[in-house]
Amino acid sequence: MRIGILGAGQLGRMLTLDGMRLGHEFSLYDPAGKASAGVGTIYNDPDGQHLATFLNETDVVTYEFEHLPLDLVNRIATEKPVHPVPRALQCCQNRTLEKALFRDLGINTAPFEVVESAEALQAATQRLGGRVVAKSATDGYDGKGQAVLDTPEQAPQAWPRLGCDTAIAESFVPFRRELSIVAARGQDGEMAFYPLAENIHHQGILRFSIAPAPHVTPELEDQAQRMIRTLMNELGYVGVLALEMFETEEGLVANEMAPRVHNSGHWSQNGAVTSQFENHIRAVSGLPLGETAALQPTCMINLIGETGPVAEILRLPYTHLHLYGKAGRSGRKVGHINILADSLEELRWRAMNTASLLPECPEFDWRP
Amino acid sequence: MRIGILGAGQLGRMLTLDGMRLGHEFSLYDPAGKASAGVGTIYNDPDGQHLATFLNETDVVTYEFEHLPLDLVNRIATEKPVHPVPRALQCCQNRTLEKALFRDLGINTAPFEVVESAEALQAATQRLGGRVVAKSATDGYDGKGQAVLDTPEQAPQAWPRLGCDTAIAESFVPFRRELSIVAARGQDGEMAFYPLAENIHHQGILRFSIAPAPHVTPELEDQAQRMIRTLMNELGYVGVLALEMFETEEGLVANEMAPRVHNSGHWSQNGAVTSQFENHIRAVSGLPLGETAALQPTCMINLIGETGPVAEILRLPYTHLHLYGKAGRSGRKVGHINILADSLEELRWRAMNTASLLPECPEFDWRP
């Protein structure tokens, strides 16, 4: 079977590296013409000249990136099976739809209003009360297109910074920590859930994920699984889905979802029985899902801007390096390291030590 | 760094899949024109037309296959660094040189004589006494080019079956089991040793490897490490080397070596901290070696002839599937399965169950 992937960055690369072991072949199609995956048959195709060739040779199409032209994906879906379903893409491209989906499915999310002007943002902030986070309805990722308002009067300054026509104003969630759940759903409706990950951001970019997240009660795990199960069943989802959540005094609050393999699931490459990449490929190619249990406590550290001292990293006996073959550039994800340990305390020391070697990496001051 | 691999079969494929994670790029050059790797930049080049291009783009050259034209490899070595050293290739292409190397280095091996005719084979069998195994000096693998003689009088029938001008006649070793050791040596002389594997053949082809092999005393492990360390140091070896051995009442007897990643090391992909493939690439690219410790008892099962029922295999929560993207054909290695378990007893049941699903797979009647 030849699997087509829309998008050809590091996620497409890692999907291909794991998917080839299942005997599949891969074609990666990048409508932005910025392919970096370096594996599979690559179509760098900003002009759409190679779309027919790509579709002709693929048996099924998936994607590694949610900011794809929706009309392109819908068009492809008339010719080939597309997993996950394009509606998932549509919801994830637009926070208005995504928040409405959460609300309609009874998934706990922060109170919100849709706003289309500075005045509307000010009024919404007044109504919501307290601190408000404003987010561009489209195109936001890695903390871009966001503003925090402590008072309604900050709306006139905040609005132009969002750079959009439509935004979501939502109550700030006083959270203990950010958690995420990654799950897979097969073509027969079978589901598999990875243990929750605890995520630490710095300057709006994910830096560290610890999985399985410690201090997750069975109730919390169950709440997370119910939320993502509800989403996957509603969407008739096939593939890997990620859901970012806030942990609060009253349980979990859903923040946003990603219809693809997710940075907070990279730990599974070394820390789980089956990686999220393999499970995504198993799902979209109609194979049974693999075991998602964790092998050991794992910490994923993103390499941002540059790869750092590769030989020094590899000399540590507990590191697993994953480089993306991309040139270094400030703020760019160029790789990650998975660190395993027998205990959380040992994991903490190993991650601190590894982080201290890396340029542009914040201190790892996490405690289990 | 772009690494060139001579040979483009499943070993080149798995070297590439693991090596890309270290940020390297790969070109695979097949002088036999039978590339099946399906990854990296492939040169299917029986006429030698693309050799210059291949060499021009690669920084270092390694190989996945020992039956390469030696003059080709020597020529390449005048232009680019070749790891492992071509002398290793030369020794492994010729049992006469290989046995002499073992003997000269004091590595315990079965008594042998070089023979070049049926008469010489008969006389050597007489002198060696007891059962004798005759092996073609060159081109033998997977049990081909071999004959067993119980009496000297069988030489006239045995000789033509070897199909060669020069052969080795060696005393049959009454062994308990076949073991192998896989080790890596870096460019700075650093070495790393995998735990020994126990190997089970059927019809001359490796079917099962169990690692770490049970009932390996520290003395046995030490003897294996001393043998392979001696070989690597003598050769100035860089990369992964495998040594097949017989376990006897009196300890280990070296059988043959392979200057490359080895089928009996495939278990390390899922069962060890660092796979043999990653360690080979680390070594030839001048990086520090990775930890070789086993994570869990592991059994590797080769898929011979056809892949079998892929979905059924993947439904078992303890299997890791590795397919080579090759068409099925009787006797051909098309993939393997790594099975992990917490205990040897559980491993045995899991391997028995998995083997029972596979076509052309002998029963797994091993006991720890």
Keywords:
3 domains; EC 6.3.4.18 (chains A, B); Dna Ligase, domain 1; 368 residues; ATP-binding (chains A, B); 4-stranded parallel sheet; Rossmann fold; homodimer; alpha+beta; 12 helices; 5-(carboxyamino)imidazole ribonucleotide synthase activity (chains A, B); D-amino Acid Aminotransferase, Chain A, domain 1; 9-stranded antiparallel sheet
In short:
Two copies of one chain form a homodimer. Chain A is α+β, with helices and mostly antiparallel strands and 368 residues long.
The CATH homology group name of the largest domain in chain A:
ATP-grasp fold, B domain
Task: Provide the β-strand percentage band of chain A.
Answer: 25-35%
Output the number of helix runs of chain A.
Answer: 12
Number of domains of chain A: 3
Oligomeric state of the chains in view: homodimer
What is the SS-derived class of chain A?
Answer: alpha+beta
Determine Rg of chain A (CA atoms, Å).
20 Å
Could you tell me the mean pLDDT of chain A?
Answer: 96
Distance between the termini of chain A: 43 Å
Count of beta strands of chain A: 17
Just name the CATH architecture of the largest domain in chain A: 2-Layer Sandwich
Q: What is the CATH class of the largest domain in chain A?
A: Alpha Beta
Largest sheet of chain A: 9 strands, antiparallel
CATH topology of the largest domain in chain A: D-amino Acid Aminotransferase, Chain A, domain 1
Query: Helix fraction of chain A?
Result: 25-40%
Provide the succession of SSEs of chain A.
Answer: EHEEHEHHHEHEEHEEEEEHEEHHEHEEH
Largest interface: A-B, 29 and 29 residues
Low-confidence stretches of chain A: none
